[in-house]
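Posting for a labmate who doesn't have an account.
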Amino acid sequence: MTTVVLADDEALLRKAMAALLPLEGDITVLAEAENGAEAVEATLRHRPDVLVIDLEMPGVDGLGAVAEIRRTRPDQVILMLTRHAKPGVLRKALKLGVQGFVSKAADPAHITSVIGVLHGGKRWIDPDVSALALVDDCPLTDRELDVLRVTGEGYSVADIAAQLHLAQGTVRNYLSNAMQKTQTQTRHEAARYAREHDWL
């Protein structure tokens, strides 16, 4: 028997999975969560074999929740569901130790099968997800993306430096590089350009 916590802000999809997954295999759903904060709380409380979590949720998103869970449960097995495998997201998820990546459009029988694979200690990335993620034409480094992501939230250079634990001069260098690579005039234009190209 494999125990699971389901986290997805789409109630209809979450309820359908909670009902269908046990019918497809030896799965017990211990708890459901409708946002990242609830996912963290439910995972740490119930300690499931596998956490099945949506990438995009309000508030703390899937990656944010995974990062928080990893601090307490570094070996937690995680299957991430997504509608859009944005370039760079797969890489970031793998860096956080996510073992599985599946499209939200997948059949429940397939999701059940992947849960079994992950519980058995292996990894699984759906071919359609990996194909999208491999088409990564982003010229920006991870650090440049981090700086643009915070820039897009309206923070000043000083705020960005404090939030990312960097020197202000280092932040300016990253922003300058990002503006050159995106051929934009301001950091806000560079952040907007990166979002429009699904790099953030």
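Reply:
Got it, the structure tokens are right above this. The chain has ten helices and six strands.
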